Amino acid sequence: MTLLDKDLVSIQEVRTLVKNAKAAQQKLESMNQEQIDKIVKAIADAGFENAEKLAKMANEETGFGKYEDKIIKNVFASKMVYETLKDTKTVGIIGEDRENKTIDIATPVGVVAGLIPSTNPTSTVIYKAMIALKGGNAIVFSPHPNAKKCILETVEIIRNAAVNAGCPKDAIGCITIPSLQGTSELMKHKLTSLILATGGEAMVKAAYSSGTPAIGVGPGNGPAFIDKSADIKVAIKRIIDSKTFDNGTICASEQSIVIEESIENEVVSELKNQGAYLLNEEESQKLSKFIMRANGTMNPQIVGKSVETICKLANLNNVPSTAKVLVARETKVGPDVAYSREKLTPILAFYVEKNIDSVITRCREILLNEGAGHTFSMHANNEELVKIFALHMPVSRVLVNTPSTLGGIGASTNLTPALTLGCGAIGGSSTSNNIGPLDLINIKKVAYGVKEMEEIRGDRPQNTNANISLGDNEDLINILVKRIIEELR
User: Fold this and answer.
1) How far is CA 221 from CA 11, 255, 288, 362, in A?
2) Do 107 and 15 share a domain, yes or no?
């Protein structure tokens, strides 16, 4: 019987991939830390050596971002992630507390389903393969159809490197005929142990609704607050550097700038000096209609595109070719307010508030509208103010004096380097971590007994009352009688 329907072929391919991955994972489970680490290093080296090739493929196939920045992403996903996790214990006994008499034993979760977005396709494959294999897991990738070619090439490169280092071939697999039905089968398959989902909100919700344990991340929509205590020139530079990195395709990138009105003139002047173009009201309205589609989702035509391309698409004819980012003044927040939403492209909203209290309120409003649990950034040289904002922002990451894109993923901060950023319960995510290999293992606990039943019950020795002098003390007599009755029970 020949299967001709794409969805049926995709489902059958997934079933075969998962079955083979499970068999391969059982072989990985018997390996020691040294053997696993050798495989992970091989993946990292292959990703690093092919960073430029894969970046160009991703840029050419998807049309998103800049290949030069995608090279940096691939280097980050391979070299920098590896340097962070290389010495982490993930196999066998990983911890022992002699004082409290407990032992921690790492156990792989099994087969991981790795859902890959089109915005960061090659780097996400390298990163997810490394953290999965580091924990002794197999991984099966579901590629975004618009990035299938570069994802399959990345999988082939890292799989060959891993196999040469002793990895079972089927421990790294990828759907070659991607479909919604195939991805659904991968997520719901009885041999799939965990879903590692990076992508759009609908896909992440589907992962959590599959019945399989999942780690998914919601949308980012981080506001960037510039305080009057900040070095405004440096703050603007960081924001523009961040928002233009790969044309804004990383979800931790800034989506709006929020300031107090007392520094408005200085901030506006610096934005213009550093290549930002402030849209007038007519231009702002025209672009706003182009950012969002009728169904309330972001227009894919603008994702990862340059300012020049966006202006051509939206018929903005007066924007100079030197403009790096487009900035639109905004006073409202809501699902139908395009500038207040996530924009994975070089477009920023600009809010001017009366005072710090208003800034806090506005930033919370933006995040709770979209992006709750993800990332907030601020530029300030006032440590007490940083603490105040950190306490009030409903996010998992508060980044200070750094480009939000690079800070959120752990490239310019000491956060765990990662391309999957948990958003916590408020963001609909199962974790608030930057996802690493320790998120992809279970920890078995060995615990020695340290108390006997009598200690737990609080029983006292039989002669406790022997030294009590009762005399005429009626209260003590009552206490003694009560104890005797309790013991007789």
Assistant:
1) 35, 6, 16, 13
2) yes
